Each structure stands twice: as structure tokens, then as C-alpha cells.
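Hi V.,

You were right to ask for the full record rather than a summary. Here it is.
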Amino acid sequence: AEYMGERIKKKREIFVSFLFKMYDPLATLSESTRALLIQIVLVIAFLTMNTILNLYNKWLFTPVSKDGAGLTAPLFATITHSVAGFMTAFVLQFFPSVYVPKEVKGFKQWCQIAAMGLFFACTIGLNNSSLVHLPLSVQQTIRSCSPVALAIAAYLIEDKVYSIQQIIALIFLVGGIVLTVASNDSASLTGVLMAAGSVISGALYYTFVSLNLGKTGVNLNAIDILLYTSVPVALILLPIFILADEYSTIASFSEANGAFFTILLFVIGCILAVSYNLMTFKFIKMLSAVYLSVVANFKLVLLILLGVALLGEEVTLLSAIGLSIATLAFSYYSYLEY
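Predicted structure:
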């Protein structure tokens, strides 16, 4: 009986494999062709999700007078994104074939996760808040300055050494960003400081992860970060949300447009944010974080063009020159780095 059971099991596996090959449209392709197609699909999916999320947030937080939705509550939106991320990761842990959470041991590691939540809250909170005060093209250009902040943090904290070519690329990157911001009349100082703060806190976040979490064995992936840091992020941003009186903004918007429409806008943002985080995780897992950085070059140009086409943002000649310099410098630095 045991022998017959093993034979039946083996035949079942062969039959399932046969069906998979029969109905898999990629089964007849070579491994290299399959890998190329998967890479193309992932790149398109990542660019699509990132672009949609950025354009949606910009439209959502822009006042009605500037053709936006007028729901200027970026902190509350960030809190809802964090809660949605936690709920998604919490549900996924009940499916071990999809996700098994890393175990966090000891008070020290929990403190490290809380610190991650602090840096991550500053990064995302300031990033979303800057969209209220800046055109998307300017905000994304400032965000492209992240290699400079990371390089400075790595030099001061990790004693990392950079080549002359890398330093020159970073100088041109900063110069292009300064030219872009200085030549744009709609770039407020508040928005610039918020975007710059987001870049700095993001650099500290990644440096902190590199220095501490890997050495202590936590080594969280993207879904672990959603599970463990989402609640600290929400708790950190909640008092700031109250002080900023975003509740009054949400109440006024809800009274004018209806509670259902208001909730729907936040739910759409949550779906986009969680989907983007999961897509980023899949992208890094299959193609590496290095390739993600390279694709960011094309994302920057794409977002700027769409911001002009869909949101009516204006780009002056000097601003266009600054954008070009910053994009080329960012691309060259990525080439040198990777």
C-alpha cells in the first residue's frame, strides 16, 4: 500500500507539471528569453506604480485653486498608508508559502526597529508634505539628491572613500538641483526644506539599517518593515497630525464633498502605497537594489514630463537646464557606483 501510494503521488506530480507546462505561455521559451520578459514586466510595473502613486499624491494634496483635489492632509494620508501596510503584512503572515516574518529578539533590536520607524516616518511624512508646497518636477529633482546625502552620511559614519569622478558627479547633481529650484517661482522655501529633510532622514534611515540591523541579525525585508515599523510610524506622526490641525482640513473637505468620497480617496492612496511597497520588494528580490537605482533615472524624467503634461506644471528654460544637469549627473553617479 505504501509503495502504491508513492507511485500515485509521483504520477500526480508529473501530471501537475505537465498541466503547468501546457498552460504556461512562457514554458516554450528559452530561460534567457523568459528572464528578459520577466525583467521587462517588472520594470514596467515598477515605473507604472511609482508614477501613479506620485501623481496621485500630488493631485490629492494640491489645493483646488491649482487644479488639485484640495485634500491637503499629507500626514494623515501617511498614517493611513502605514496602517494599511501593517494590516497587509499581518494578513500575509498567515500564508507561510508567501511570507514568514523574521523573529525580533531582545530589547535592543526592538529599539532599533523603533529608530527605523522614526527615520522612516520623517522620510515619508516630509516627502508627502513637500508635495503641498512644490511642483512635482522640483520635488522629484530634490529627491534625486539622495546619493549626496547618502555619500555624506557614509563618509562621516562609515569612513567610506569616494573617487574624484564620483565627487564631481555629486557636485554637478547639487548644482543642477540648485539651478532648478532657484529658477522656479512656485518652489516655496517650506517645500524645499521639507523635501531636503526627507532626503536627509532617508539617508540616515538607510545608513542606520546598514550599520545596525545586518550586524545584529534582524535583516528585515520590505514586508517585515511593513509589519514592524508601520505602527511606530503611525504613532510618531499622530501628534504632529494633531498639532498641524489636519483634522479640520479633512472635516471641511468631507462636509463639502461627502464622507464616502473622502474615505474613498484615502483608501485609493492606501492601495497604491501598499502595492508600490510590495512591487519594490519583488523588484529588489528578483533584479537587485542596484538595478532599482538605475531605473530611478528614467522614473525621474518620466515623472517630470507627466507633471508638465497632466498637472499643468511649468518648466522654464533654466529649470529645464537644471533638470538635465541633475538627471545626467545622477545617471553618471549611478554608473560609477554600480
